[in-house]
Amino acid sequence: MTHASRSAVPLNRFVRRLGPHHFAHLRAVSEGLDVADCARRYLGIEHGQEARTAHQQAVDAVRAVARRRGEAAWRLVGLSIRLQAGSGRPLLDDFVGQRGLEGFSETEVLELYNAAYSPERKAVRSQRLRARQLALLRRMEGLAAETPQASDLVAGWFDDVTASKLMTAGLTSLGELRAHIAAGGRWYRTLPGIGQAKARRIASHLATLLPGQARPIKPLFALRAAPGFFSHPTFSAQPGHAAGHEAVLETVHGRADSVVLGDAALTGRPPSSPSLLPARNDVEAVQCWIRARAGSVATAKAYQREATRLLLWLQYECRSATLAQMSVGHCSDFMAFLQNIPHAWISRERAAPGTIGWAPFRGALSHTSHRQAVTIISSLFTWLQSAQYLAANPWLLVNQKTGDDRNHRMLDTKAFSEAAMLEVLRFIDGQAPSASRARIRFILRFVEAVGLRSAELLQARLGDLRMEPEGWVMQVHGKGARNRIAAVPGQALEALQDYLEARQLGTIQTAPPAAPLLASSLDPMASVGYQALYEHVKGWLTRAVRASSLPANERDKLAGATTHWFRHTFGTRAIAREVPLDVIQAQMGHASIQTTTAIYGRAPIRRRLDELGKAFK
Q1: Across residues 484-511, what is the average pLDDT?
Q2: Is there a domain that residue 1 lies in?
Q3: What's the domain range around 583?
Q4: What CATH number does residue 465 fall under?
């Protein structure tokens, strides 16, 4: 790189406003500590070159202040002062041994020692100079150091590169950054080029900037009720179903993650009220609803999550109101609450439900999640009224329509383009043969050609496939506990055959019918769970996309790809190849063709454009 090109590179500013941490850094360096270590501790900077640059910028800034203040000794700021006193002076015992003074008295030895190693004038001068340097830094700190405030812009207290990334993510002030970090979890996932280590340094530096500014204390979201709430055996977590703190909030007696309900919920219904339910309170009524209406583990999780959030909202925001006390106003207020969830109700920490640090939400709800929550709560009230647990249903009097998401791009789907799929397959085929490689290749090719959901793929057995006069088909036990027949085209059969050979199970006709369609990489007859599938696919896709030659915008899009994207890839690819919508609907198990049209609506759009093009040339 030429001198001209080096000078064209913009300087990364590490110091824009002087704070107490800058002076702490300079004092530590003045005391003889390593610049890189001091920069790491006080300035939140890890790399050596950046540390030296930041140190020099701090020196220049303080020197400028000292000159403006008329300090004649401004050059002392940043001056490296080495103290020579004591250097090269041996221990007294060593001195005696070196000089052969074993027979000398202590007084004689000390006189000889001091004569040989008298304090140097240079060392004394260095000590005085350092004292003046530290005194100057203390004076300048009192005059120029600003105390960072939560309202300050991040650009004033972080280096240019980091501040730019923070502001791009919408974190413009120190307070916003603190609140974002306080939410916990992978708070840095939206920051480009920021990994876990860098995020930890940012958080540590922020704690230096705002000392004593403790993270906001969240209320202990606990529902006080009897043990056993929502722990019906029917909906206990099965292998393959993750049960995180946002999923099923099981309550088992003696467990730390029990979720319990408030006293108000224990008196939700007057004892004299007629009811078809064996429920004495809101907790038990909700439990009855879940047991009666949830047809799957996934549905039970969704029902429990939304009911728990509502009961907590009634307890903390409505003075422990009960379901029976909810009015039309409460319904409207709860819908507004879901649209603007307070920070105290949000936490991404891995804390058990009902313990300190846990909160009912993991972030702001999307438009779809908000609509689903309202639909679930409304169905709860309808069922409770039908069971005569509630005398009235205020949700019938509320406009529950949320409309469509204005920011949703209707023709966009989470699918792999053909070019992206080829790049991923090329990467996979280029890796050394292994059970893991065989499995990921099967998942990609099979799901792309059949369109299964992740749960359907995990539950499938080889015995579910059979040869019919029409060809190879597969019986699928799908969403809503409904059975359907899915066609298995040639690409899927070829992928399955290759996978069975890699598992040493023979052919489709000879392999054990009880063998899982998707197996563990360690045991060809063992099933895998959803978490294992998610991490397996995510890991391979991350490496494949990173190594691909795809455009940057497509790589960014594929960074969020999961197993479900292969199902969307099937639908998108089928539409592009002019497969009729009713065929796609039946293959994917959609309840209505409107669902298929809403997700993969390009065929109707193409026909509409063709017909209108003829009329308005």
Answers
A1: 94
A2: no
A3: 418-612
A4: 1.10.443.10
- 481 occurs within a structural domain: yes
The string of pLDDT tens digits covering residues 128-184 is 888 888 899 999 999 999 999 989 999 999 988 899 889 988 899 998 898 888 766
The closest of 533, 540, 541, 539 to 517, measured between CA atoms, is 533
Q: Identify whether the C-beta of residue 565 lies closer than 8 Å to the C-beta of residue 490.
A: no
337 and 478 in a single domain? The answer is: no
3-state SS of the chain: helix, strand, coil percent to 5? 55, 5, 40
Of the pLDDT bands very low, low, confident and very high (cuts 50, 70, 90), residue 464 is very high
Choose the final residue of a domain: 363, 397, 431: 397
Q: Do 375 and 441 share a structural domain? A: no
Are residues 350 and 392 located together in one domain of the fold?
A: yes
pTM of the entire predicted model: 0.56
DSSP annotation of 486: E
**Closest to 337 in 3D by CA, of 372, 299, 365:** 365
> What is the C-alpha radius of gyration for the chain, rounded to an integer number of angstroms?
34
The Cα 303–Cα 288 span in angstroms is: 11
Residues 40, 135: Cα–Cα separation, whole Å: 24
**pLDDT tens column, 532-586:** 999 999 999 999 998 998 888 888 888 888 888 999 888 888 888 888 888 988 9
Q: What percent of the chain has pLDDT over 70?
A: 80
- The whole-angstrom separation of Cα 338 and Cα 346 is 11
55-82: pLDDT as tens digits: 999 999 999 999 998 988 888 888 887 6
**467 and 393 fall within a common domain:** no
Q: Do the domain assignments include residue 386?
A: yes
Domain for residue 161, yes or no?
yes
pLDDT score recorded for residue 8: 42
DSSP sequence for 373-442: HHHHHHHHHHHHHHTTSSS--GGGGS-------TT--TT--S---HHHHHHHHHHHHTSPP-HHHHHHHH
540 is written with which tokens? 């391979």
The number of folded domains in the chain is 3
The CATH number of whichever domain residue 302 belongs to comes to 1.10.150.130
Strands 483-487 and 465-468: unpaired
Residues 6 or more apart in contact with residue 357 via CB below 8 angstroms? 184, 218, 347, 349, 351
Contact 587, 451 (CB under 8 A): yes
